[in-house]
UniProtKB/TrEMBL annotation:
Residues 1-30 form the signal peptide. PANTHER family: CEREVISIN-RELATED, PEPTIDASE S8. GO terms for biological process: proteolysis. Pfam families: Peptidase_S8. Belongs to the peptidase S8 family. Residues 155-434 form the Peptidase S8/S53 domain. It comes from the Bacteria. This is Peptidase S8/S53 domain-containing protein. The active site is at 164 (charge relay system), 202 (charge relay system), 400 (charge relay system). Keywords: Hydrolase, Protease, Serine protease, Signal. The keyword Signal applies. GO terms for molecular function: serine-type endopeptidase activity.
């Protein structure tokens, strides 16, 4: 299917049909589908019900919108608490009338998903403690007795940057100094009530896997801890409530991490990228590839998800395609903490003989933290995990989750030996990985990571990688692949060599600055002021947030930015379908699989 970009409402709203920061995860039901299932996103007939997301201003407007949906013969399928709105299905002709209801800010398309093969009845779950045990860790004790080979390794002091949909201040991620908010570069940055919050639900899930940490509990009490519970997270939000974002925003975020990696209290040593694009140019030319390679050469271990398109994937997504970074595929733990029964997850992208997953980590039905009221949380309540005492957990599958496990593992190694280079960390994880029986090199890489073995292994003396370096001289448009954002008011699609502000993309100028770690000057990137230029908040590190800025520049279409207009960034046309949300966007083609739709979101996370 081709990506269409047709305006859906008279009210201007950022409509995204492109890079989706979450598709590296799948719905809970995808695990039982046959390998490389074929999926389709069915386009609704003109008179049939059309899935939409409705954003409103206040409780009264919400009630009016619900009444309007019912009057049009539609159905409200859920309330979206974080963004202030609802999900519904309405006859296509009623969309325009719904958008005109007083208090309705925007009406934007959701996706109708129709799997063409496979079973969607999986209800499995893999506790993070079991995932960690499979990776050579045992985090089942209390806070005082968790030792790794006799050492208390928790990732303490190591900063892990996560470029995603934001991180919610939920239990397990709300401790002092646990999450530091870098600049919010998403369209929602212009809405003060949404800034830095995870309105989509993906970033919080991954943050919990990497470094979640419950307050101290009594010995023997149940608690939640991530792979590196002592590490701190630097969150850079680029995705809005629908998960969409332009590749220029992602590149800007990577450059910010490089520029500010040594800011007081940050010590950014790991960068988690659980997303990807279906770039149509080589890693040698692609600008996103160049950006992550620059981070790697500045001492940051870059961990990227390979995608969720299974054996059918012709290549891994960008930036995992860059040969220097750690490309991560997903394993299926089989419901046990023992590694002997693990297999390569059916959805994990295989790639090519020359570029595929370097290592694997558990990525099926991983239980981590939920972002209450976010899009995924509201849309897939079946994925919530409740033990009778709490319902703060959510399960999800994908190479996104596997990448988060590896990011946490890298933080442990860097706490143990801060002098390790990114090349050494990669070689340690590859050399000590446990091969999975029956897996070929393309699907299984070096095998499943074994952190304990890596901790015990000597630092490799010869670890420098030999590969053609990226020049970054390629086109920004080709880096977008099949995903684009569009202004619903004007129909203008963001294409060509320009960023979201319409600023021209000049590779020769940008590559020099990115390579030197000076692409950001205060709050300015690529010639436009994106954000503030200082840290705000008192109380030291625990209260630090990068200052915000009102976007005064115009968009690529010449429209004016403002919170009312752009706080809801959503997909248009086929945006939630095959090329974007449905099989290819955040997943294999963009974020890591086939996105949160067809192959990934017909039901709850796995």
């Amino acid at each position: 299917m081709r990506t269409r970009t047709t305006p859906v409402a008279a009210r201007r709203t950022a409509v995204l049909a492109a890079v989706v920061l979450a598709a590296a995860c799948l719905p809970a039901t995808a695990a039982t589908a046959a390998p490389a299932p074929a999926h389709e996103v069915a386009a609704a007939p003109a008179a049939a019900g059309r899935p939409v997301i409705v954003r409103v201003a206040g409780a009264a407007a919400l009630a009016r919108a619900e009444a309007a949906v019912a009057a049009a013969g539609g159905t409200v399928t859920g309330r979206l608490g974080v963004i202030g709105g609802l999900a519904a299905t309405v006859p296509a002709p009623a969309v325009t009338a719904l958008a005109a209801v007083p208090g309705v800010l925007a009406v934007t398309p959701d996706a109708t998903v129709r799997p063409s093969a496979g079973s969607w009845t999986d209800t499995g779950r893999n506790l993070l403690a079991d995932i960690a045990a499979t990776a050579g860790l045992d985090r089942r004790g209390t806070a005082d007795d968790r030792l790794l080979d006799g050492r208390r390794l928790t990732g303490a002091g190591v900063g892990v940057a996560i470029i995603d949909s934001g991180v919610a201040p939920v239990q397990g991620l709300a401790g002092p100094g646990k999450v530091i908010h870098g600049p919010d570069l998403s369209f929602e940055s212009q809405a003060a009530n949404l800034r830095n919050l995870d309105t989509y639900g993906h970033g919080t899930h991954l943050a919990g896997i990497i470094a979640g940490q419950d307050p101290d509990t009594v010995k023997g009490a149940r608690r939640f801890d991530g792979v590196a519970p002592g590490a701190h997270l630097i969150s850079l939000k680029v995705a809005a409530a629908d998960g969409a974002v332009d590749v220029s925003q992602v590149i800007a975020a990577v450059d910010w991490v490089v520029t500010h990696r040594r800011d007081a209290g940050l010590n950014i040593r790991v960068l988690n990228l659980s997303f990807g694009t279906d770039s149509t140019q080589s890693a040698v030319l692609d600008p996103l590839s160049f950006a992550v390679e620059s981070a790697w050469r500045h001492g940051i271990v870059v961990v990227a998800a390979v995608g969720n398109e299974g054996p059918s994937a012709a290549r891994v997504t960008m930036p995992a395609a860059n040969p220097f970074v750690i490309a991560v595929g997903a394993s299926d733990p089989g419901g046990t903490p023992a590694a002997r029964d693990d297999t390569v997850a059916s959805f994990s992208s295989r790639g090519t003989l020359t570029r595929h997953a370097d290592v694997l980590a558990g990525g099926r039905s991983v239980v981590s933290l939920r972002s209450p009221g976010s899009y995924l949380d509201s849309s897939y309540p079946e994925a919530r995990i409740s033990d009778g005492a709490t319902d703060r957990f959510f399960r999800g599958s994908g190479t996104s989750q596997a990448a988060a496990v590896v990011s946490g593992a890298a933080a442990l190694l860097l706490q143990q030996r801060p002098e390790l280079t990114p090349d050494q960390v990669k070689k340690l994880l590859r050399d000590t990985a446990a091969p999975i029986r029956g897996a070929d090199p393309r699907s299984g890489g070096a095998g499943q990571i074994d952190v304990l073995a890596a901790v015990r292994a000597a630092a490799p003396l010869l670890s420098a990688q030999a590969a053609l370096p990226s020049t970054g001289a390629g086109r920004l448009e080709l880096s977008r692949g099949s995903a684009h954002v569009a202004d619903a008011a004007t129909g203008a699609v963001l294409t060509g060599e320009q960023d979201i502000f319409g600023a021209p993309w000049r590779p020769s100028e940008w590559t020099d600055a990115s390579r030197d770690g000076r692409a950001w000057s205060g709050g300015t990137w690529n010639g436009t002021a994106w954000t503030g230029s200082t840290w705000t908040g008192g109380g030291g590190l625990q209260a630090r947030t990068w200052s915000a800025r009102t976007w005064s520049a115009r968009t690529w279409s010449g429209s004016t930015w403002n919170a009312r207009t752009w706080s809801s960034a959503v997909w248009t046309g086929d945006g939630w379908s095959a090329r974007t949300w449905s099989a290819r966007t955040w997943s294999a083609r963009t974020w890591s699989g086939r996105t949160w739709s067809s192959a990934q979101w017909p039901g709850p996370w796995q």
